[in-house]
Amino acid sequence: MDVVVKGERAVVGDCVLLSCGDSERIMRVRDMDGCQIRLDGVVKSVERDWCKVLDQAEERGRITYSLMHTRLRDVELTERVHVWSKVNAK
Length: 90
Prior knowledge:
By secondary structure, the chain is mainly β. 8% of the residues lie in helices and 43% in strands. The chain has one helix at residues 20-26; strands spanning 4-5, 8-9, 15-17, 40-47, 50-59, 62-71, 76-77, 83-84. The strands form two sheets. Strands 3, 4, 5, 6, 7 and 8 form a six-stranded mixed β-sheet that branches.
């Protein structure tokens, strides 16, 4: 399924940045200016104006996975994904 995201096409397997709000629901991490860091993940499914994005985060030494159901207009394509932890986000 072809879906337009900020002028580019997002498909299953693409790496995307989540919005600040969606990122905060997964892990609350602030940059030096106090702004929420945008987490990234991989698009797992696309349905009309919505997508599911798999995010990986490390908490207490264990990798956790979050599947975020979000609007396509709220994600932005990126080149790669990270495994986030509060340590490497600072």
